[in-house]
Design brief:
Length: about 220
Amino acid sequence: MNIPKHIAIIMDGNGRWAKLKNLPRKEGHKEGANSVEAVVQTALKEGISVLSLYAFSTENWARPKTEVTYLMQLLANTLSKFTEEKYKDVKLVFSGRRKGLPNKILTKLDKVIEATNGKKKLTLNLCLNYGAKQEITDAVNKILAQGKTKITESDIEKNLYQNLPAPDLIIRTSGEERLSNFLLWQAAYSEFYFTKTLWPDFKGGDLLKAISAFSRRDRRFGTRK
């Protein structure tokens, strides 16, 4: 079966999941963190090389302060898990702007990235305080700072947050069908998979369904076959 090398996921629906169950929104986020664990473990088993997770966007800062505070604490707890034995084959990298993130998160993020640097089986790209328009803008400004006056596609690609292959498959949960400022540059020839399943209900079997759907796609990259 043809499997994607790089899967990117827009993890959507935590709040709606909680609302349907008459639970506080934080319970949806908590169960969403369990889905992250299930999906990472399945990606490892299936031989996926890169998994990008849209964890917190630049727009998410506009949410209520209590919710953002809880999300940052949940993130800190989740980061700590990536040094556990079950993640021994996972290398963590980060895409996003450091400015604006709490120092506690940056310190923990840097420690986990350093601790997992030698791992090679699965690269987990955590998109945090991330926005695709901001990524492209930051890349262009880095190039201009180098003194270049003519910018090529290659220049931009080399100056994105991470030097990773473009995602073969982008998954969005919860029934929404848009990118929401996620990997706009990298998604030029990605396949899309939309599911009505809310993120807290999305587990390993759901990822396998998405991979199976991808394997049946005919990818031509603009050429005629």
